[in-house]
Design brief:
This protein has 182 residues and is α+β, with helices and mostly antiparallel strands. The protein contains 4 helices and 8 strands, in the order H-E-H-E-E-E-E-E-E-E-H-H. It has an 8-stranded mixed sheet with strand order 2-3-4-1-5-6-7-8, covered by helices on one side.
């Protein structure tokens, strides 16, 4: 399943950018944990290994830290990845390529911080196309991100990464996750 070719990064995904920036600015305190839910219908161009590596790289980028521990459980159309970073942030990544064709994809990122959460997951309903939520004890604010959060945005982020000459997913992450996909 592992292919020896550059894997486009998801570091430019709008939700990941917001999490990284709000963590750096400590908008809601210190980043403690991340949860990424990435579910879609499998297409001919999807590569489970490549998407797993790209999502793990995006989590490491959002956490702004290197991976200390990694555990991956995978199956035919998906994977569950649990990572602990050197700065003690943990990330839980759920990748599912088994949605029926009648369902739109689900691309949620939730950052759990010491004083609140940042997420593009809606509080109610199924979609939150309008942006990202920041919530703490006193308020819940919604603001727009530069890029819409949808399947096209994911593909565009990966294409932009290649077009902008951004480095692909680092080899260190590929090497860490590769053993789970052989």
């Amino acid at each position: 399943m592992y292919q020896n070719e550059p894997i486009p990064t998801l570091r430019q995904w709008g939700a990941i950018q917001v999490v990284r920036n709000s963590a750096a600015e400590e908008t809601l305190g210190q980043l403690c944990a991340l949860r990424i839910s990435f579910s879609k219908t499998k297409s001919a161009t999807d590569n489970l290994f490549g998407l797993s590596a790209a999502l793990l790289d995006a989590a490491a980028f959002a956490a702004d830290s290197n991976i200390r521990k990694l555990n991956v459980n995978r199956w035919d159309d998906g994977a569950f990845i649990l990572a602990e970073f050197e700065n003690e942030v943990t990330a839980e990544i759920e990748l599912n390529l088994g949605l029926p064709a009648s369902m739109p994809g689900i691309y949620f990122v939730t950052a759990f911080c010491s004083e609140g959460i940042t997420t593009n997951q809606p509080l109610t309903g199924y979609f939150n196309p309008s942006g990202v939520l920041l919530a703490d004890q006193g308020s819940c604010k919604t603001f727009l991100v530069d890029r819409d959060i949808c399947e096209d945005e994911i593909a565009q982020a990966r294409c932009r990464a290649l077009a902008d000459g951004l480095p692909p997913v680092p080899q260190t992450i590929i090497d860490l996750i590769k053993e789970y996909f052989q």
